[in-house]
Amino acid sequence: MRIMGLDFGSRTVGVAVSDGLLLTAQGLEIVRRESENKLRKTLARIEQIISEYEVEKIVLGYPKNMNNTEGERCAKTVEFKEMLERRTGLTVVLWDERLSTVAADRLMMESGVRRENRKKYVDQIAATFILQGYLDSIAMKKDNEKSEKGEEEE
């Protein structure tokens, strides 16, 4: 089983996939489109990746505002989520993506990526951060369940 992470933007979708053990997220690509409302090719490419990597679940970045309110991008993200679910039949989980793009940009700055080149990769790296956050939460949940069972047995 693999999980796909998506960073949905107005003109791009950053894509990441997990390894088979659900431990790590790897950035895969950025799907670009000519205009915000042209999603047919974007959805088709995502379906190809799902098939190629045997993806069983999608984690979609949910762009809440820093004060925890939901703006226009959240509504567009929910629409995209519903499209993905209809087309793929997979579960799509919304995942709080606040600061994922900031973290991606910071990582590239620290790695010495030139400013003009950062824009090429930021969405893919943000998708990786989104997916890794989700994978870490699954692992933490499993660890907590194990430790609770261990306490019950004592």
CATH topology: Nucleotidyltransferase, domain 5
**Tally of DSSP helical segments:** 4
Give the overall form.
globular
* CATH top level class name: Alpha Beta
Provide mean pLDDT, rounded.
85
Q: So, the CATH homologous superfamily?
A: YqgF/RNase H-like domain
In what order do the strands lie side by side in the largest sheet?
Answer: 3-2-1-4-5
Helix/strand order, N-terminal first? EEEHEHEHH
How would you describe what is shown here?
The longest helix is centred in the last third of the chain and has 39 residues, at 115-153. The chain has 154 residues and is α/β, with parallel strands linked by helices. The mean pLDDT is 85. It has helices at 40-53, 72-88, 100-110, 115-153, and strands at residues 2-8, 12-18, 25-32, 55-62, 91-96. The radius of gyration is 16 Å and the shape is globular. It has a single domain, classed as 2-Layer Sandwich (Nucleotidyltransferase, domain 5), CATH 3.30.420. It has a 5-stranded mixed β-sheet with strand order 3-2-1-4-5, sandwiched between helices.
